[in-house]
Amino acid sequence: MDQPSYTISKLLPLVLFCSSIAVIVVYAFRYIALHPLYHQLATQHSYFMPALIAIPLLIMLFFLFAKHLSSGLPHVVLEFHLGLGKLPYLNFLFQFFSASVALLTGFAIGAIGPAIHIGASSANLTGQLFKIRPCTLRILSACGASAAITIMLDTPLMAILFTYETIIRQFRGRTLILVVASTLFAQWFGHQIGVTPLHIEVPPFHLSLPLAGLWLLFGLLCGVLSAFFLNSIDLFTQKVRLNYWMKITLAGIITACLSVVSPEAIGLGYQLLQSLLYEEQFTALILLWFCVRFIGSMAVIALAIPGGALGPSLILGALAGAMFSQFLSLEVSQLFIVIGMGAFLGAVLHVPLAGILFVLETTHDISLLIPCIITSYSAYFLHQHFCKHNNLIELLLFRQKIILRDSPSLKKKRLTSPL
Length: 419
Known about the structure:
Blueprint: H1 8-34, H2 38-41, H3 49-64, H4 72-82, H5 89-104, H6 112-128, H7 134-153, H8 156-168, H9 173-192, H10 209-239, H11 244-261, H12 270-278, H13 283-302, H14 310-327, H15 333-348, H16 352-363, H17 369-386, H18 392-399
Helix pairs in contact: 1-6, 1-7, 1-9, 3-5, 3-11, 4-6, 4-18, 5-6, 6-7, 7-8, 7-9, 8-9, 8-16, 10-13, 10-14, 10-15, 10-17, 11-13, 12-14, 13-14, 14-15, 15-16, 15-17, 16-17
């Protein structure tokens, strides 16, 4: 593998230019994700229609891109370490259009995973026009991925750490500088074109030993639920062995049925999160939302609908926090909703520190650091004992017969890559 020979001063203009392209493309995808057609297509008596409309559209996309179906964060990780540094443009097109269709019609998937692929590919494909080396293309992929997370969530520190923990998986000073520069530039650029940050208000609380015990107990609950979530995806994948058009049809039917039961719990979940945070809800309704969201996200991920799992992890964590506070009649429900988001994300994707940074950046409240640490790491450690696969990326790659833990180039230790 070629050793990189470019200096930071030579690479920085290229990185910023490619990142600007990634920002524009991801912003377009973000607009689609935040303006679904589900509510316009659905009426009181036809909540099931949007998901059924998506079935033929997704089947057509799967047929047209039959040899380029690899997508999402696992695709970026795989190409980054085991590929030649070049991200194919056909996989990029498949990811953009298929994820857009799924999000527009209410599938219970996330937008962050597709955005990472779209951002990484946009920067990478732009770099390919300049005929640069594979090692530099990998840097552009990482910068595009981090920029994409920043545009979607406006959490630059979390974006940098998440990119390092899930994609790069090793430390190189020059790569870190370029990723940081790309991320900060993406945040500035995003604000200029109208990206509004996600901000969550959490009422003040008093640190006490009983409350810390509840944080620990809740973290253990998140660890069990996250392990059950991944194990359910694994089991569903093994039991349902169908061709792609039957999988899409089954995913559409499941989503349609769940939309009739609880239309609020499907789709991206942003409005659901707002309801949990700022409106009073009944315990039975929250439990219904959790079950619908759990089944919906588990099914569509297991059936290979090209969407993300980061968003569903955040929503499931928020629902778990709301249920926990309701069952125990706690007055700090918003606190448990927010720390549940970070804990569930950290456990499912094996990035507890990124989950903590997400909470701190979206709340701008450093007092949440201690509850986040207790909850996220207790969930993370318990998840490891109950889950066959350490994280969702490992599970999704395992479906492609790629064993993450046995691949030296993908382990979290010093790698052979020159980045």
